[in-house]
Specification:
The protein has ten helices and 14 strands. By secondary structure, the chain is α/β, with parallel strands linked by helices. Strand 4, helix 4 and strand 5 form a beta-alpha-beta unit. It is globular, with a radius of gyration of 20 Å. About 7% of the residues have low confidence. The structure holds zinc ion.
């Protein structure tokens, strides 16, 4: 059985941090204290979080962060009501800083990546996946399958390389809902979208079209690989899919963007983010998905939830809440 996701434990983590600090000291030489502070305590380092689902080895990988206006969080709510809620929850009133958590699964036979992040051409704070894979010792050629939730920039603009020519994961088979592929590649796509996101369509075409030959088109409900099943969560985009990944009686729900905020999507699933294409349909499928997760006590990974975005969804008196994983370095 191949194990391409490195094991991490407290010892290697501590040793690694110390090695980095020591390296910084050596490189900068004379004035060590400011250099140490600059090299280790500025910015955030993208990371990964390891967990298991049955015999599948899994990881949440950070592609970095996105910054969007806070008002995008609920287009169907008065500004004052949204602001009051944000204030109550210690959230910024002007910006929504959103994590981007990719899912990597090593089944023992295949290395499967859900979505590929933003690449270099969306926001500078995102597109960290290639560097992260390198630090993990995973070659892009080792990825056997790329499974796409939907074709927004932060999920697919990393499909082709920075020169926008070659596939970044040359040996992968690609899986996407046919509805999603057709929507973004339709000749009249620009008439269906507001002008502010016309670049989304052009970017989706730039990234999806060169891979058309390698695409397997899947349908909601379909088990397209052993243990991997697609779920209909249309609304955020017309062909948005979430996924159930099962091994030995354990199941992971990969939600994609069915939920986009760890407080609002759960406590107010009716609030419609501006980024949902069909707001009403997204609400319906968001509630259905969270009900499934709560009823079956599924492990969940949320793309835009606070890193690593792995945990459970609780339901009580019609309201949902996010219960993050406890850390377990021994996995
Ligand atoms: Zn997204």
């Amino acid at each position: 059985m191949r194990t391409l996701i490195p094991q991490i434990n407290r010892r290697t983590f501590v040793t690694g941090s110390m090695a980095t600090a020591a390296g910084a000291l050596m490189v900068t030489g004379i004035d060590t204290r400011p250099a140490l502070a600059k090299s280790t305590l500025s910015g955030q380092a993208p990371g990964y979080y390891r967990f298991n689902i049955g015999k599948f080895k899994c990881a949440s990988l950070s592609d970095g962060t996105l910054t969007l206006p806070a008002e995008f969080l609920a287009r169907n709510m008065p500004k004052e009501k949204l602001e009051e809620f944000l204030k109550q929850n210690y959230l910024p009133l002007t910006e929504n800083i959103s994590q981007t958590n990719l899912t990597l699964i090593d089944t023992g036979e295949k290395l499967v990546l859900f979505d590929v992040g933003s690449g270099e051409n969306f926001q500078e704070s995102a597109g960290k996946l290639p560097a992260l894979l390198e630090t993990m010792g995973i070659e892009p050629e080792a990825i056997d399958a790329v499974v796409i939730t939907h074709a927004h920039p932060d999920h697919v603009w990393g499909l082709i390389d920075e020169f926008e020519e070659a596939p970044r994961y040359p040996n992968a088979q690609y899986y996407i809902n046919a509805t999603e592929f057709d929507f973004w590649n339709s000749s009249d796509i620009l008439t269906k979208l507001p002008e502010r996101i016309h670049s989304f369509a052009l970017g989706a075409q730039r990234n999806l079209k060169p891979l058309a030959e390698k695409m397997t088109f899947i349908k909601p409900g379909q088990e397209f690989m052993p243990g991997f099943q697609a779920l209909d969560t249309a609304g955020h985009t017309p062909g948005h899919l979430s996924y159930l990944v099962s091994s030995e009686k354990e199941t992971l729900l990969v939600t994609g963007d069915s939920m986009t905020h760890f407080v609002i999507s759960l406590q107010h699933p009716d609030w419609q983010p501006l980024t949902d294409f069909d707001g009403d349909l997204a609400v319906k499928n968001r509630k259905k998905l969270m009900d499934l997760a709560a009823t079956d006590r599924l492990r969940v990974i949320g793309y835009h939830l606070p890193f690593p975005g792995v945990g459970h969804i609780g339901k009580k008196d019609g309201a949902y809440r996010w219960i993050p994983d406890g850390w377990n370095w021994e996995l």
